[in-house]
Amino acid sequence: MGEVRYQSFATSEAKLMKLPLDACRMRTHNERSSVFAVGGREHELSVWDAETLQESGAGAKPTPIFRAKNVANDFLNLRVPVWITDIQFTSEDATNPTLAVSTGHKQIRLYDARAQQRPVNDWEVSKHPIYHLQASHVRPELYFADNMGNVQQMDMRTGHVFGAFKGIAGAVKSISLSEDGAKIAVAGLDRYVRVFETGSMRRPLHRAYVKQRVSHVVWDWEHKDFSTQEIEEQEAEDIWETMDKAALKKKSNKRKAVAI
User: Fold this and answer.
1) Residues 15 and 6 sit within 8 Å (Cβ to Cβ)
2) Contacts from 155-161 at CB under 8 Å and sequence distance 24+?
3) pTM (2 d.p.)
4) CA distances (Å), origin 176, targets 11, 20, 148
5) Which of 134, 165, 228, 250 makes a 20 to 30 Å CA pair with 16?
6) What b-and-e string marks burial along 55-74, b requiring 16 or more CB atoms within 10 Å of the CB?
7) How far apart are CA 231 and CA 208, in angstroms?
8) What span, in angstroms and rounded, lies between the C-alpha atoms of 90 and 110?
């Protein structure tokens, strides 16, 4: 219930911190791993620094770097419920970060810690609850997925949804962007991992059935990302190699039959 364990790779010492909330979603900063954002159902967005937090049992109350406020009441003057489903840092600044948040009420909100506690932009971009969010590190774009298997692409500057990725069956569990931003990998409940182009065509490039239910997918940026042509050439070589082995096996079986 609000407990966070932080351990640096540089040391073996681990810290156990207690936050005054029950977080449903947590995301670390891309450049500074000790900075993380949390949020959830009826728990508004907050950003913390593990290096400055008090350890468990300390008397001082932990203070976040940034704590968001809920949006203004609706047209009936009723409080808007809070339901944060995913969080993405959209800037390299960890002291005054900018963040994108998706909600279970079909919205995407942008926060700027330098400007105000309420979101600077609030868009309703889907017909269904949005569960997963991925910010592009190459262009000012966001990719989001709802609970109906719809994965869409959005301009983060205007809130305009300008494309969707087709052929996904079932709810999406994870979205991941390649190092060059040219490809996106999507894993869903149908046990397929699919790779699409992120350009104007958004064509499906690859599909793999992984047998197990996938909870998360990431790109390995340390290995070379083969082009489509190189993959097709390798697949053709594998097919010819399989055919040659089958032909040799057939000849061997014929010789055995003649000998008998």
Assistant:
1) yes
2) 156/90, 156/100, 156/110, 159/108, 159/121, 159/123, 159/125, 161/125
3) 0.79
4) 29, 30, 18
5) 134
6) eeeeeeebebbbebeeeeee
7) 14
8) 9
Alpha carbon distance, N-terminus to C-terminus of the chain: 74
Residue owning tokens 């790109």: 219
E strands along 1-42, which residues? 3-7, 14-18, 25-28, 35-40
For 161-183, give one letter per residue: b (16+ CB within 10 A) or e.
Answer: bebebeebeebbbbbbbbeeeeb
Tens of pLDDT, residues 147-205: 888 999 999 999 999 989 998 888 899 999 998 889 999 998 889 999 999 988 899 99
Q: What is the CA radius of gyration of the chain?
A: 24
| CA-to-CA dists, residue 98 to 93, 157, 229, angstroms | 8, 13, 38
β-strand pairing of 130-135 with 121-124: unpaired
Q: Are 17 and 2 in contact (CB under 8 A)?
A: no
**Assigned token pair, 248:** 């040799």
